[in-house]
Amino acid sequence: LDVTPGSRVAFVTDTICGFCGVGCTLGLHVQDNTIVKVTSPPDNPITHGNLCVKGRFGFQHAQNRPDENGR
Q1: Secondary-structure percent of the chain, ordered helix, strand, coil, rounded to 5
Q2: Residue 54 DSSP class
Q3: 59 DSSP 8-state letter
Q4: What is the DSSP letter of 4?
Q5: pLDDT per residue over 10-69, tens digit each?
Q6: Is 62 helix (H, G, I), strand (E, B) or coil?
Q7: pTM of full prediction above 0.70
Q8: Where are the beta strands (DSSP E) in 1-71?
Q9: Interior angle at CA 24, CA 21 and CA 3, nearest 5
Q10: Cβ proximity of 44 and 25 under 8 Å
């Protein structure tokens, strides 16, 4: 799986949200090595496919990282 920038590979990877103690399951939709969307499984017994504001938009905090040049 090539996830280098510009590869145009899109995939979903599952993870656990760490913004609170609930521990919701998140599906991170990744394209060009960038998170483009966050979802929750509709069959999840806790979230029923919905996420709070932190879970839904918290990926922007994870994306705010320096590039190879330290910027």
Answers
A1: 15, 30, 60
A2: H
A3: H
A4: S
A5: 899 999 988 888 888 889 888 888 888 889 999 988 889 998 888 887 777 766 656 666
A6: helix
A7: no
A8: 10-16, 25-31, 34-39
A9: 120
A10: yes
Structure tokens at 28: 């991170």
Residue 35: predicted pLDDT: 85
The sign of the dihedral angle between the CA atoms of 27, 62, 34, 58 is positive
Q: How many residues appear in the chain?
A: 71
Q: Is 27 helix (H, G, I), strand (E, B) or coil?
A: strand
Sheet strands side by side (includes 34-39)? 10-16, 25-31, 34-39
Q: Are strands 34-39 and 25-31 parallel, antiparallel or unpaired?
A: antiparallel
